[in-house]
Design a protein that fits this description.
The chain is α/β, with parallel strands linked by helices. It has 16 helices and ten strands.
C-alpha cells in the first residue's frame, strides 16, 4: 500500500473504472477525468519505453548497486540490470571476508536481480584509502600501484574473491570486471587467475579501460575479454591531469572536449570489432546530455546511480535521441569546446537547462 493511504480506500473505486494512484505522495484519485487518465497513460508509456532502452538503438540502461535493497530500488526505477557492484565495502571491517561470506553476498545480489545480469567489479584498491586490515598486508614493491596492479601483489586476497565469484556457477547471469588495468600483462594475469578457478566459462570477464595506457592501445587489453567497460571518471581525470575530486561543472568541460569524444568513439569501435558490447559508467553517463552523446558514439550500455535513472531514461526517449548519432559525429569533428557547445545548444535546451 502506498504511504499515507488508509487501508481499504481502493475498494471504494467503481469496478471496471480506472483509478490513479500516486504511491510517492500517498494520493489516490478514484474518479479521474478522461483527460487526466490519458495524460498519465502517456507519461507511463514514455517512462516504460525509456526503461526498456528508450528509442530503438539506444544503450541499455543499467544501475550501480551495492546491496540487495539497492538492487531492488534500481530495478523498480527501470534499470535493465546492475552494471557495477563495487566490492570494497566487504573489506571495511576489522577482518577480511572469507570465500563463503563473499559468495553469500554475491549470491544474494544475483537473487535480488531476478534474472537480470549483475556485473561485479573485483576489489579496486587505492593506496591512499586502504582499510587498515589491508594496509597491514601490503608487500614491498607495491608502492604507487592501484586497482588490479595492487591486487596482484595480494594474490591470496584476489584469489579468495575470484573463487567466491566462481562458486556462483557458469549459469549465473554474471559479469566480472577487472579495475584499473594498466598493462596487458596485468590483464593476462588476472584473466589467467580467473580461469584457474574452475567451471566459470559461462561467466564473462573483462577489463575496465580507465587508464591512459589502456585507452591508447585498447586492442592489447581485449584479448580473451567477454565484456569491456570504460570508467570515465578515472580515465577522464587521468587523461586531462585533474583531480577526481573536481566539481562536476569542471568535468563537464572535459567530457565535452572533441578529443575526448573521439576517444570514446574509438574505444567503442575497437570493442565492436571484437563483437564486444561496451559499457560506460561515471559522471558523463549519469548526465542526460552525456548519455545522448554516448549513445551517438556507439556505446551499448550506460551504468548510472539510481538517482540518475529517471533523467537519463527521459533523455534516451526524447526527440533529441533521434539525431544523437549525427550530433555526436559533428561534435567529434569539432576543433574546440566552444564549437561543441554551439552544436549542442538546441539539444541542451531540449533535454534540460544546463
Amino acid at each position: 500500500m502506498a504511504a499515507g493511504l488508509p487501508e481499504g480506500v481502493l475498494d471504494e473505486g467503481i469496478d471496471g473504472e480506472p483509478v490513479l494512484l500516486d504511491a510517492d505522495a500517498g494520493l489516490v484519485d478514484l474518479a479521474p477525468s478522461p483527460e487526466l487518465a490519458k495524460d498519465v497513460a502517456a507519461d507511463v508509456a514514455t517512462v516504460t519505453r525509456a526503461a526498456k532502452g528508450g528509442r530503438a538503438g539506444m544503450p541499455v540502461l543499467l544501475a550501480e548497486a551495492e546491496s540487495v535493497a539497492e538492487v531492488a530500488a534500481a530495478l523498480a526505477a527501470g534499470a535493465q540490470g546492475i552494471g557495477l557492484v563495487r566490492t570494497e565495502r566487504l573489506y571495511s571491517g576489522a577482518h577480511l571476508p572469507d570465500e563463503a561470506q563473499q559468495a553469500a553476498d554475491y549470491a544474494a545480489l544475483l537473487a535480488a536481480a531476478g534474472g537480470y545480469r549483475v556485473t561485479i567489479r573485483t576489489l579496486a584498491l587505492e593506496q591512499n584509502a586502504l582499510p587498515r586490515v589491508l594496509s597491514e598486508r601490503l608487500p614491498a614493491g607495491s608502492a604507487g600501484l592501484r586497482g588490479i596492479g595492487l591486487a596482484l601483489h595480494l594474490p591470496d586476497l584476489l584469489d579468495t574473491q575470484l573463487r567466491a565469484l566462481a562458486t556462483l556457477g557458469a549459469d549465473a547471469n554474471l559479469q566480472v570486471l577487472i579495475p584499473s588495468v594498466s598493462t596487458p600483462e596485468e590483464w593476462t594475469a588476472a584473466r589467467t587467475r580467473w580461469h584457474a578457478m574452475g567451471t566459470n566459462d559461462g561467466v564473462s570477464i573483462g577489463p575496465m579501460l580507465e587508464t591512459p595506457a589502456a585507452a591508447l592501445e585498447p586492442d592489447a587489453y581485449l584479448d580473451g575479454a567477454g565484456c569491456v567497460s570504460v570508467g570515465t571518471n578515472d580515465l577522464l581525470t587521468s587523461v586531462y591531469g585533474v583531480s577526481r575530486d573536481s566539481a562536476w561543472p569542471a568535468l563537464d568541460d572535459l567530457w565535452l572536449q572533441p578529443a575526448w569524444l573521439r576517444l570514446i568513439r574509438r574505444l567503442a569501435h575497437c570493442a565492436h570489432a571484437r563483437a564486444l558490447a561496451i559499457s560506460i559508467c561515471g559522471v558523463m553517463a549519469a548526465d542526460p546530455l552525456g548519455a545522448l552523446l554516448l549513445a551517438g558514439l556507439g556505446v551499448d550500455a550506460l551504468t548510472v546511480p539510481v538517482w540518475a535513472l529517471a533523467s537519463v531514461s527521459a533523455a534516451l526517449a526524447s526527440p533529441d535521441a533521434v539525431s544523437c548519432v549525427e550530433v555526436a559525429t559533428a561534435c567529434c569533428a569539432a576543433r574546440a569546446l566552444s564549437d561543441v557547445r554551439a552544436l549542442l545548444a538546441d539539444v541542451t535546451i531540449s533535454v534540460y537547462h544546463r
